[in-house]
């Protein structure tokens, strides 16, 4: 009986592995050449002086607009993909029988990474 309780406890503990180990947010870094540009995300967040960083949900899909006086603006699409570590955690959920954990990881986006990250915006200031 004790072994059964321990096994069930282990299964609950490892369900949602990526959510626990990676979290549902990622840090998006935005760099520009030249530095000191203004950044506006389609989700509303802004930064006035690159390089910048934003804490965003891993399952985000946003546009990043980078502008600087005297330079041509640059818009870059940021989306997400399954990360190596996220995929491994998802596989661990399935192998151990943590279907609930796999659903949690998929729902929270914990198995995803934002791409590209970092965002590298080269502005034409000529």
Report on the architecture of this protein.
The chain is α+β, with helices and mostly antiparallel strands and 126 residues long. Helices cover 33% and strands 35% of the residues. It is built from four helices and eight strands. It has helices at 2-14, 17-22, 84-96, 99-108; strands at residues 25-33, 38-41, 46-47, 52-57, 62-67, 74-82, 112-115, 119-122. The protein has a five-stranded antiparallel sheet with strand order 3-2-5-6-7. Strands 4-1-8 form a three-stranded mixed sheet, with no helix packed on it. A hairpin with a 4-residue loop joins strand 2 (38-41) and strand 3. Helix 3 packs antiparallel against helix 4 (99-108). The longest helix is centred in the N-terminal third of the chain and has 13 residues, at 2-14. The chain is elongated and about 75 Å long. The N and C termini lie far apart (75 Å). Residues 8-16 have low confidence and may be disordered.
């Amino acid at each position: 009986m004790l072994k059964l309780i321990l096994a069930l406890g282990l299964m609950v503990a490892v369900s949602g592995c990526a959510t626990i180990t990676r979290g549902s947010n990622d840090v998006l870094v935005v760099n520009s050449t030249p530095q000191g540009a203004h950044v506006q995300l389609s989700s509303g967040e802004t930064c006035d002086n690159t390089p910048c960083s934003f804490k965003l949900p891993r399952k985000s899909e946003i546009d990043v607009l980078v502008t600087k006086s005297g330079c041509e603006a640059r818009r870059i699409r940021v989306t997400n993909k399954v990360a190596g570590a996220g995929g491994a955690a998802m596989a661990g959920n399935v192998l151990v029988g943590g279907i609930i954990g796999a659903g949690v990881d998929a729902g929270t986006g914990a198995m995803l990474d934002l791409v590209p990250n970092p965002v590298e915006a080269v502005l034409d200031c000529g």
